[in-house]
# Entry
Amino acid sequence: MKLLAKYYKIDDAVVGEDTIVRDFVNLYGCKIGRGCKIAAYTEIQRGVTIGDRCKVEAFSFIPTGVTIEDEVFIGPHVCFTNDRHPKAVGNWEVTPTLVKKGASIGANATIVCGVTIGEGALVGAGAVVTKDVPANTVVVGCPAKRIKVKKNAGKNGKRR
# Structure
């Protein structure tokens, strides 16, 4: 890990080799793979798993219940949720969310818990994802709707 930060909180986290962590980041009880970049003002909570070569931009929030596979881009201010019926008092129920390999999530997107974002998918900036996003699909809007399927996508969602 390359800790390029003066102010941070890393508690019981496993951080892979060549991963860069910037200032004002909270990491606790999570696992982050190799070669990742974690930007400033990001919080990654207990139980989160992030794969190799991922990029998490500034001000992102990734709560318990989220799994992110390899080579995923999380844009600035992306917010994941983890409870379908949140409340201030009492117990809550964590609902898992999965982001598959090579997916990209644009700035200010909100990902409502319980969805899978498919391999190579693209979530547009500001989208609110309430349903699964198929592999190699572009979604935008509130709620997010499919506008395009990427053509000639290979196994990892990249064009050939």
Remarks:
- The mean pLDDT is 92.
- The radius of gyration is 15 Å.
- The chain has no helices and 22 strands.
- The CA atoms of residues 125 and 146 lie 14 Å apart.
